[in-house]
Amino acid sequence: MSLSAFFTAKGRRMSPGATAVLMLPFFALLGFAFIYPIVSLLSISVLEPEPTLRHYAAVVENPVFARVLWRTLRIALLVSLLSLVLAFPVAWLMAQSRGPKLAFITACVLLPFWSSVLVRTAAWAVILQRTGLVNESLQFLGITSEPVRLLYTQGAVVVAMTHVLMPFMVLPIYGVLRNIPKDYVRAASILGAGPLRTFHEVILPLALPGILSGFILVFLTALGYFITPALLGSPTEMMIATLISQQIREVLDWPFAAALVGVLTLFVTLIAMVFGKLMKFDRLMGAQA
User: Fold this and answer.
1) Is residue 133 within 8 Å of residue 151, measured between CB atoms?
2) 140 HSE (CA, 13 A, CB side)
3) Cα separation of 242 and 229, whole Å?
4) Could you give the CA distance from residue 212 to residue 180 in angstroms, rounded to a whole number?
5) What is the band of 283 on the pLDDT scale with cuts at 50, 70, 90?
6) In this structure, is residue 18 part of a structural domain?
7) Other CB atoms closer than 10 Å to residue 58's CB: what's the count?
8) Which pLDDT tens digit goes with each residue over 228-270?
9) What's the CA gap between 64 and 35, in Å, rounded?
10) Which residue blocks in the chain are alpha helix, DSSP H?
11) Is the residue at 217 inside a domain?
12) Handedness of CA 228, 234, 239, 242 (dihedral sign)
């Protein structure tokens, strides 16, 4: 069989063998960099020091874990909602722009990816400190008479995580808004719909796949976020990733930390499955109905 025949079958469609060959590097990398480390870590939770489930029992019975998990869910949800509120106008402006204006807005959205999360988090620490820009501005305007405690709070964590994760919300929404035919908006206007009704009955339903995919992406990423909560959050109000790090680095309890990872992995997987089932995940990824 010739090489061209191997990669094409039934016209221009790729043959199953060619698909397997092209996907092999991806699955090899996935298995080596993700599946193998996760399986190895989870095995510690049930095999050390002997085959047991007591580490998972300790996770369930420990009230600290329940509070940390609930706090993580609350912060992840709040970050996702704030990212959506801030990202939608930016995505809409991008969808309505062309040429240099679009290039400029896109560069502003992608600019955070050009610097590390650690640098962006450190910048927020400088801005929110007692002598930082926010406190200096509040005192200059007479809103406060002395510095306000902004750093090492949940508010600081939410603001910084929203700034870091918002591009992951902008891009899916922009991709959907860009593909909405302008004839739909003109047709709604001809039929007598005002801007608000057009947005509610035409644009929002068509943009829903991008909104949901961005929301899921930001929410699931925020659940396991570590650097920002560790640097800007309070030690008494840690998130689940910080708790896992504490168990590994300070307590040196690897089996219990692995059990925490197992519970978090199961929880995230269940959330993704529920969203995929209820929201038709193939449509969230851009497939046509």
Assistant:
1) no
2) 7
3) 7
4) 16
5) low
6) no
7) 15
8) 888 888 877 788 888 888 888 888 888 888 888 888 888 888 8
9) 28
10) 3-7, 16-30, 36-47, 54-61, 63-96, 99-110, 117-128, 133-140, 154-178, 182-190, 195-198, 204-223, 227-232, 240-249, 254-278, 281-284
11) yes
12) positive
Q: Domain of 152: which CATH number?
A: 1.10.3720.10
CA–CA distances in Å: residue 26 to residues 18, 23, 30, 42: 14, 5, 6, 23
Residues 149-180 have pLDDT tens digits of 888 888 899 999 999 999 999 999 998 988 88
| HEC-encoded secondary structure of 22-43 | HHHHHHHHHHHHHHHHHHHHHH
Structure tokens that stand for 195 in this block: 């801007």
DSSP string over 220-271: HHHHT--HHHHHHS-GGG--HHHHHHHHHHTS--HHHHHHHHHHHHHHHHHH
Enclosing domain of residue 258: 51-284
Under DSSP, the state recorded for 153 is S
pTM: 0.81
60 within a domain of the structure (yes/no): yes
How many domains, in total, are found in the chain? 1
Nearest to 109 by CA among 147, 157, 164, 65: 164
Task: Please report, to the nearest 10 degrees, the dihedral formed by the alpha carbons of residues 210, 211, 215, 216 taken in order.
Answer: -40
C-beta separation of 43 from 207 below 8 A: no
**Which pLDDT belongs to residue 288?**
45
Say if CB 211 and CB 143 are below 8 A apart: no
Closest CA to 91 of 76, 69, 108: 108
The residue count of the chain comes to 289
Considering only CA atoms, which of 241, 270, 218 is closest in space to residue 71? 241
Asked whether residue 14 is domain-assigned, the answer is no
